[in-house]
Design brief:
- The chain has 15 helices and 23 strands.
- By secondary structure, it is of the alpha+beta class.
- It has a 7-stranded mixed sheet with strand order 5-4-14-15-16-13-17. A 6-stranded mixed sheet has the order 7-2-1-11-20-19.
Length: 532
């Protein structure tokens, strides 16, 4: 294409979650751009996971999607966090909950106070999960939308995401995209045409001889990476020295009660098993290292640890942990699995699709393709993947499990310098600083995972000036109020059943349905929960 010509046609190669998420956003914002999506029913899609993180709500807003309509169409449930079982050591569990943990004492965060109390008066504090509204609501199977009208209530700081059926979600987005003018082209791509001078992709040729031309191509072809890898030859950075898992076995099963508002991850002999509850079924899978365990043993272990009757045979999926060296090259942008893969331990697969789309929209070419914009896109993509990689690696490194080759390796392996630096800062004073404004996981996430898995860290030295009784009283107040508020929340399944199929045209509050108004506040002067 002409280097100075504005982009007027975008071709998305591949459907599935990544393709239709891309189509939904671009069709919402680029009204003057023609958008084609090429996919083939002959080629199966790999679900990138059915669990999300709270940022998915930003995606729905960006794509102009009604959240309640999405919940109904994709059989979604709510997610307040992830429960990790047997990760620190067999028999232990903790929850990585979304949202704020308790409240601060001036600049001292709750985990600093908890560390000080644990070291000085261990018999006077409870497990760390008790000081997070999301964690307590998880274990009670309760849910409500956050209510910001009373900033002193722990309900104001709740955060949430969704579990949904990825196939139904993609189908739902397809409907919205086609209503906005996206043209879906059925066909299997057999060849790619490039400009002989610039090397830019000009068209893709289908098996029936048709050609689909464009000016900007978005590669959503999954691990095949048809354009970014197969055509442009952009290499792949392998991270298997830290992330041993290279395969997953997935199977759905029948639903059981209660409908839990959290994902579950259980450590297994050579990896881990996920559990994702939806309205109509439960999604299950075993992520593992194929070098250390066979497919048959994995299938047997998976089927023997289901809550309900299996609805299909276990299906294996192969993957390679790592990232594409460049996510954008020439006029091709890779989004989804074509740009890299990190196992869904923290439900980041769909989020990485989302941020790739947002970056593309933010740097969409105005006239031609700017090398500076492309370099910045690739820098941000690399930084994001590395940040998420380090957080996932931390789950494996910080463990006391032993006796299995898998866990013995990850417990003793060398980790990236960026992760070691973070470990040392936590170890010395329990402190955390974001590496950049765009870094995904905040202090609350790191603290819950590291403390939950037994990482030894010292409290902020300033805590030694706070008397024991004051720390204990402060933490007790947080724990008591959270427990009371959580107990009053609706049952998760009942809350879901009460939702309308879509949001009203003019909501009267800042939530999509009427919020529960406890109007509660924390108090340090009394054990009594007060309301106004």
């Amino acid at each position: 294409m002409n280097a100075e010509k504005p982009v007027r046609k975008v071709v998305i190669v591949g459907g599935g979650t990544a393709g239709w998420m891309t189509a939904a956003v671009l069709s919402q914002w680029l009204s003057q751009v023609e958008i084609n999506l090429v996919e083939s029913e002959e080629i199966g899609t790999i679900g990138v996971g059915e669990a999300t993180i709270p940022h998915i709500r930003n995606y729905l807003a960006l794509a102009g999607i009604d959240a309640l309509e999405m919940i109904s169409a994709s059989k979604a449930s709510f997610k307040l966090g992830i429960q990790f079982i047997d990760w620190g050591a067999p028999g232990e569990s903790y929850i990585h909950g979304f949202g704020k943990i308790g409240r601060d004492m001036l600049w001292l965060h709750p985990h600093q106070l908890w560390l000080a109390a644990r070291d000085r008066v261990p018999d006077r504090v409870k497990a760390f999960d008790h000081y997070s509204m999301n964690c307590v609501a998880c274990l009670k199977n309760r849910f409500a939308f956050p209510d910001s009208r009373n900033r002193n209530s722990p309900l104001a700081d709740m955060d949430y995401a969704y579990h949904f059926d990825a196939s139904l979600f993609a189908r739902f987005l397809r409907g919205h995209s086609e209503e906005r003018g996206v043209e879906r082209i059925e066909g299997r791509i057999v060849d790619v045409t490039r400009n002989p001078e610039s090397g830019f992709v000009e068209a893709v040729r289908l098996a029936d001889g048709r050609e689909v031309g464009g000016e900007l191509f978005v590669d959503c072809s999954g691990m095949r990476a048809l354009l970014i890898g197969g055509t442009l030859g952009i290499g792949y950075e392998d991270w298997s020295q830290w992330l041993l898992c290279d395969r997953a076995m997935a199977v759905p099963c029948e639903s059981v009660s209660p409908l839990t508002p959290y994902t579950r991850s259980t450590a297994r002999r050579a990896g881990w098993q996920w559990r994702i509850p939806l309205q109509h079924r439960i999604g299950n899978g075993y992520v593992y290292s194929s070098n250390l365990i066979g497919d048959e043993e994995v299938a047997e272990a998976l089927l023997s640890n289901l809550d309900g009757k299996a609805l299909a045979d276990p299906r294996p999926v192969r993957f390679a942990p790592g990232r594409r060296v460049k996510a954008w090259d020439k006029n091709v942008v890779a989004i989804g699995l074509s740009s890299g893969f990190l196992e869904p331990l923290e439900s980041t697969s769909i989020h990485l699709i989302q941020t790739g789309i947002h970056r593309l929209l933010a740097m969409f070419p105005s006239s031609g393709f700017s090398a500076t914009d492309i370099d910045e896109y690739n820098f941000q993509s690399r930084t994001e993947y590395e940040d998420v990689r380090d957080f996932v690696i931390a789950h494996y490194k910080v463990t006391r499990r032993s006796g299995d080759p898998f866990w013995d390796h990850v417990r003793t392996m060398q980790v990236p310098d960026t992760l070691n630096q973070r470990f040392e800062l936590f170890r010395s004073s329990g402190r955390f600083f974001k590496h950049g404004a765009a870094e995904l996981f905040a202090e609350e996430s790191w603290v819950q995972v590291l403390l939950g898995q037994g990482f030894e860290m010292r409290a902020d030295p300033v805590t030694r000036f706070v008397p024991d009784d004051e720390i204990v009283g402060f933490l007790h107040d947080i724990e008591e109020v959270i427990a009371d508020v959580a107990e009053r929340l609706p049952d998760h399944a009942k809350f879901l059943r009460s939702l309308p199929p879509r949001s009203p045209p003019r909501p009267t509050t800042d939530t999509t349905v009427p919020a529960i108004n406890f109007n509660l506040r924390y108090t340090r002067d009394s054990d009594e929960l007060t309301s106004s």
